[in-house]
Specification:
By secondary structure, the chain is α/β, with parallel strands linked by helices. The chain has helices at residues 12-16, 29-36, 55-64, 88-95, 99-103, 117-131, 144-155; strands at 2-7, 48-51, 70-71, 138-142, 172-177, 183-190. A hairpin with a 5-residue loop joins β5 and β6. The model has no long low-confidence stretch (mean pLDDT 95).
Length: 199
């Protein structure tokens, strides 16, 4: 079976460069309008739908017209602890110029008071394992960290380098799941179709 993973639409904190994590920030008015002008990727319009319980993801699912998506906390963004609400400059001012280096790299990365990247990957994999038990396709609206985790699980990227340029998180990431939940990339960077205007 296949699953299409989408990132939520833009928020005010996105525009300000502030880390959201588990903070329940809604879509901006512009973000909601942007997502309402789009449709789910082709062949996923009637797929089983799942969504992070955070408002920005639920509003995105609503704007795209997904029917009664199932809330699943495993699709929430990485918990960034005390860094939530801050931009990069704010983090460095709070925790020093070496804040990111001290927090670790790759799967060991853990923001102060937050969740490690390894823990995020474990819950994303648990979600994939469960939905792979059914052979019908699925769609999920989640977050940047979840898409990065899914990409890493499918490709083995070690996360020691900058985000791969072939992963465009503004588009859909489509995975093919084995019956045990093991993912492989089915398609990268699938654009969301523009909704036809009604007269």
């Amino acid at each position: 079976m296949k699953i299409a993973l989408l990132r939520h639409g833009p928020t005010g904190w996105n525009a300000q460069g502030r880390i959201q994590g588990h903070t329940d920030i809604p879509l901006s008015e512009e973000g909601f309008e942007k997502m309402r002008a789009l449709l789910p990727p082709p062949n996923f319009e009637t797929a089983r739908a799942f969504v992070s319980p955070l408002r920005r993801a639920r509003q995105t699912a609503e704007a795209l017209g997904l029917s009664e998506p199932v809330w699943d906390a495993r699709l929430m963004e990485q918990n960034w602890g005390r860094w939530e609400g801050l931009n990069r400059a704010g983090i460095l001012a709070l925790d020093g110029e070496d804040a990111f280096a001290r927090a670790g790299a790759g799967l060991s990365f853990r923001p102060p008071g937050g969740e490690s990247t390894a823990e995020l990957h474990a819950r994303v994999q648990a979600f994939l394992n469960e939905i792979a038990r059914e052979q019908t396709d699925a769609i999920a609206v989640a977050h940047l960290g979840v898409l990065r985790a899914a990409y890493t699980l499918a490709t083995g990227w070690d996360m020691q380098t900058p985000m791969p340029p072939d992963l465009d998180i503004s588009k859909a990431l489509i995975l093919r799941l084995a019956p045990d939940g093991r993912p492989v990339i089915a398609a990268l960077n699938v654009p969301l179709p523009v909704r036809a205007r009604t007269a």
